[in-house]
Amino acid sequence: NGLILPNRKVSPKVWEVKKVYQNVKVSPVDLNKGEVLVKNKFSFTNLKKYKALWEVTEDGVVIQNGELGNLDVAPLSEMVLTIPYGKITPRPGAEYRLKVRFVQSKDELWAKKGFEIAWDQMELPVKAPAETVKIPDDKSVTANEKDNSIVVSGDSFNVVFDKRMGLISSLKYDGKEYLDTDKTEAGPMLNLFRAPIDNDGRVRVRWEEYKLNDLKQVLENISFSKGDDNTVVVETSIRYTTVKGSSILHNCFYTVFGNGDIYVDNQVIPEGKLPSLPEVSMRMILKPGLEQLEWYGRGPHENYSDRKTGAAVGRYESTVTDQYFPYIKPQATGSKQDVRWVMLSGEQGNGIMFAGDARPFSFSALHYSQDDLATAKHTVDLTKRDEVYLNIYGRERGIGNGSCGPEILDQYAVSP
């Protein structure tokens, strides 16, 4: 009930159930030697019925793979196995993972030969320190203040900050605009609201009391300074106030480098009484045409902090259109966890990339705003927009089982 739609379309939840229910478990013993423990949790089936495969990935790209054949592991027993992957010379900053899969050896009534019945993924202890990228001295950056804007420019880029709102109002690289400049709030801005999912039934009442989707925002400060290392730093402070008087102060520091890279540091400071939050994210509205989506993180299907066991870490490609899943009642959808970077691009390959620094992040990219999803009763009530609503999450509430079961676990909530 709820795992499969009335039209038999499989929901993203099914992949989590499939992973949790799988009857084979592969866990590390000594990955420096390639040793893993294979446990057969079937009550009556020997694992030699299936074909075992392995692969090693570098930042999500397969660099080695092979077959282990039909492993003779009796029901409810286990064995230590050595995966014969070759020596890895690590690339600076890269991540390496070992994945072991079990697939059908022949056609069955319910599945074709090659259908995957179990998999496990493990991070390999192979690392090399990341390289420091030095920006050439000739990549200079300048800042000019006008009546209502601060313009930061370099050889091939131009970033405009609106002094009245404290937001980026234009973001151009090689003369191409990446923000939907028809929207007054297209640049990165704090967002605390998500379209309630079915399981948010209890807490959404509190979100509605505080009107988290309609916060009053006041710019308290915007300033800029030239750095010693050929950078420009723009600082903004915006206060977002609820109808109950409590607020969130958002301090944002944009460091613009001479090559056009922008490092964004966010400080989010709650003041007063607030409910458990849907999320703390930065929302952007990107121009139409950035339809192609590529990311390195969990996928390929939708996943959340408490529903990601069935989503392997990898490098995936999709479209923004395909990120929307038609739940019976429209709601927040399309989130991806443990992401290192995400890129959106157009047909000509021109794109914009977002990368994490100290830890992975999560994101969603849709042709609908959260308000669109929150107010629609059915998918047919939605009008697909040309622009892209991108959310980069610092924290995001999990899923839980609140529609018919217990409330979300504390570690997956977003405490104010």
Question: Can you walk me through this structure?
Answer:
This protein is mainly beta and 416 residues long. The chain has 3 helices and 25 strands. The protein has helices at residues 12-21, 204-210, 370-375; strands at residues 24-30, 35-40, 50-58, 61-69, 78-82, 96-104, 116-123, 142-145, 149-153, 157-162, 167-173, 176-177, 189-191, 216-226, 231-241, 247-257, 262-271, 279-286, 292-299, 312-319, 336-339, 341-345, 351-355, 361-366, 388-396. Strands 8-9-10-11-12 form a 5-stranded antiparallel sheet, with no helix packed on it. Strands 13-18-25-24-21 form a 5-stranded antiparallel sheet, with no helix packed on it. A 4-stranded antiparallel sheet has the order 4-3-6-7, with no helix packed on it. The longest helix has 10 residues, at 12-21. The relative contact order is 0.12.
Short précis:
The protein is mostly beta strands and 416 residues long.
Weakly predicted, low-confidence segments: none
Intertermini distance: 33 Å
Task: Tell me the radius of gyration.
Answer: 24 Å
Mean pLDDT score: 95
Shape verdict: globular
Which structural class should the secondary elements be placed in? mainly beta
- What string gives the helices and strands in order? HEEEEEEEEEEEEEHEEEEEEEEEEEHE
The percent of residues in helical segments reads under 10%
- Total number of helices: 3
User: Order of strands in the sheet with the most strands?
Assistant: 8-9-10-11-12
Largest sheet geometry = 5 strands, antiparallel
- The proportion of strand residues reads 35-45%
Query: Care to count the β-strands?
Result: 25
